[in-house]
Every structure is written in C-alpha cells, then in structure tokens.
Amino acid sequence: MTAIHSNASATLPQANHPYKVMALYKFASLPDAEALKTPLAQFCCNRGIKGTLILAPEGINGTVAGSTEAIDALADYLFATGPFGTRLQGAEVKYSFADTAPFLRMKVRLKPEIVTLRAPEADPSKAVGTYVEPGDWNSLIDQNDVVLVDTRNDYEVGLGTFQRALDPATANFTEFKDYVAQNLDPARDKKVAMFCTGGIRCEKASSYLLSQGFEEVFHLKGGILKYLEVVPPEQSRFQGECFVFDERVSVGHGLELGNATLCRACRHPLTDADRQHPDYQEGTSCPFCAGDEAKHQAAAERQRQMDLARQRGTMHLGDEAATAAKKAKARKVMQAEQSRERNRG
Length: 345
Prior knowledge:
Shape: globular
Order of helices and strands: EHEEHEEEHEHEHEHEHEEEEEHHH
Largest sheet: 5 strands, mixed
Region (Disordered): 312-345
EC number: 1.14.-.-
CATH class of the largest domain: Alpha Beta
Radius of gyration: 21 Å
CATH topology of the largest domain: Oxidized Rhodanese, domain 1
Strand content: 15-25%
Strand order of the largest sheet: 4-1-3-2-5
Number of domains: 3
CATH superfamily of the largest domain: Rhodanese-like domain
CATH architecture of the largest domain: 3-Layer(aba) Sandwich
Keywords: Oxidoreductase, Transferase, tRNA processing
C-alpha cells in the first residue's frame, strides 16, 4: 500500500488511541462524482469507517474515522489506487486521534458543490489565489494596503477574528457574492487577503474574486486552525476563539479547548457574556433567539422529555448527546492539562 498522507500522523499526540480521524478537502474535477459515490461508500463500510464525505463535480470534502489501518487504506484508495486516480493528490488533509468513535454511521453525499456559493465562475481547480503560510500571515496583513476579509458567517466571526478584519455579516456563504459586489472594488482594492476556519471557504472565495477582476488575492493556508496551532500566542493577531463544527464548539491558541457553548434552542455559539445575559436560560433560550417562541417551545419540550427520562431512570437521546458532549469536552480539558504538565516538565 502506498500510504500517502499517513506517515506523518504516526508522530501525532495520542497516536496510540484506537480511532484515527481524517479531515480532508480538495477542489478537483470530478464529473463522475455520482458514479464514485457507491464504490466509496462500500469501501468505507467494509472497513468500519464512519463519518461523512461530500462528493461534487468540483471535488471532495468531509471527515471520517476508523482504525489506523482502515484510514490508511482509505488514503491509498483516494489518492493513489482507487477510481479517483491522481485527481485528489495534494488534498488538504488533517489527521488526529480519538479514544471513542466520533461518528455513528457512514454517509457519502452527492451535492452540487462541496462549498455552496452558487457561482459557477468560481472554480478553484482552475484558478485560486496565493496561499500564505501561517508563519507569513502576520507580515502580509500588517501591510496598510491589504484589505483583510473574514469569509465566515456572522455567528463564527462573533466568537473571534483577526485584528482589523472586515466582517461581511453573512448568514451563509452564498451571501458572500453580494458583499463583494457592494463593498469591494477591484480598481480600488488592489490586495485582498481572506481567511476561514480550515481553508476551504476562502480558497473558493479567492477563486471567485479572481473571476471578478481582482488582481492580487491571498488566503491563509490551513485556515485559522492551522494559524492557532503553529503561531505563538504572543505573536498572534487573532483575537477571541475560533468556532469549530464539533463538540468542542470553540478552540483557542494551541488548539486548546475554548469557553463557548451552544444554545440548545437555536444552536448559536455563546460566550461567557452571552450566558450572563437576561435572555439566557440554559437549555431553552439565549440572546440570539430571544424572540423565537417556536424554538423556545421545542427546546423546552426537549428539556422536559430529558427530565422525564431521568426520573424514569432511562436516557433520552438528547440527554445522551449532551452527556457525550460534556464527557468529550471534559476529556479534552484533561488531555490539555496533561499536555501542559508534560511541557512544563
């Protein structure tokens, strides 16, 4: 087996844990995405791999987990020996390890885009902006003639962003086109730098800006997560925490666990200040959904069912999910403390 992308992961922390996690994306021409879906799903299911992979004519995106042997076999299948041929080589891949299964089932989904922008002129497989390594990012964004744009959605920006970054205030990525049309000008904004959580959104955004006539377009390679991982806190230009789409909710410098939680009613991330707001009621409402009675009623009913399940001595599905999230968060806090202790030693 070729074992592409797998050797470096052997030296990662917690590499002795039973589950290896692979997060990946690649913009590539996959006009045969529909034909690739079933063989990919069968390959994963036959090896006990679980998670979600999105296939589209523009590429692949997703996160999966399984045994080290299974994930290494999948890497070989995707990048070398499988029906993708060499089209996915050079994919952005991140490995980590977990002591419990992160996913319950395997899903391969076919979608029109791996990142929904609805702008056919944006094609990262043909044209993309200049990648900037995290170590070089500060020197770029410190330049006065660089326009810095956060391509994430408003609830993500609210937790943290780079100093002097522009906030498009978008509810979803498809609105980014309108923001560009109304606020950016290729004749005026000669240098535009963009960033997102892991690199995929700003890669597509950079392709879109190039299609609109912008000449010098830059984007942070590996996204905020890679920046927080490798740039020392004392040199960082990032303020706050970075929202992540898993049970951690947010991370800070060194990818240490953040303080954010999710509102159970509207799923909006909440800071310490948000949880002190008069409109916050644990499990029922928060400042961001204060006027949405339908969400409050649904959350209150879910909480009531969880309370009834506890009284009967059984476990409600929502209670089980919340408990699992709390355990995972506590486990990550403990691992972070252990890591700090080892570093001090």
